[in-house]
Amino acid sequence: MPVQSKPWTSPDVRAAELALDKLLSAIIAHDATRDQEPRGPIKATPFWFVSLDDAALAQAAFDELVRDPIHYALRHGVKRLGRELHRLGGLDAMSAAIDRVADMDPRHSGRRVSIMDSAWNGIGEGSARWWS
Predict the structure, then answer these.
(1) Where are the alpha helices (DSSP H) in the chain?
(2) Were both Cys, which of 15, 50, 63, 124 would link to 129 (CB 3.0–4.6 Å)?
(3) What percent of the chain has pLDDT over 70?
């Protein structure tokens, strides 16, 4: 009877997956806490689409950072680890990691996949780019 072995995973990929597990657990906990905080009345705020130039994008990123710095930092970490997974093994490493990391918390697996998928959008180049 042939022996079936598990696919080999490099120590760096495994370390990235463990770090993702911690970040995703923190994101889910942070979001749950934030969602339970009392909110004031909903205010209508006018929205003007001006441009997508670098200055406008930088301002939007800054606004998100100061509105909820913990949320922003945790998601930035997920994106950074996605870049590292791509560097270590391309889309194959990212795809395998997304499944393994989601399975580390079966109760929140769908949410975990969604967070990683959206954070990793655009990582890579050409046909080796992650699209969500």
Answers:
(1) 11-36, 54-67, 69-103, 109-119
(2) 124
(3) 83
Contact 24, 75 (CB under 8 A): no
Q: Which residues of 67-84 are buried (b: 16+ CB within 10 A; e: fewer)?
A: eeeebbebbebbbebbbb
Side chain identity at residue 101, one-letter code: V
**In whole angstroms, what is the distance from residue 94 CA to residue 127 CA?**
14
Please state the domain extents for the chain: 12-29+68-132
For residue 56, what are the contacts with CB-CB under 8 A and spacing of at least 6? 50
69-103 and 54-67 helices, crossing angle to 10°: 90
pLDDT in tens, 90-126: 999 999 999 999 999 999 999 999 999 999 999 999 9
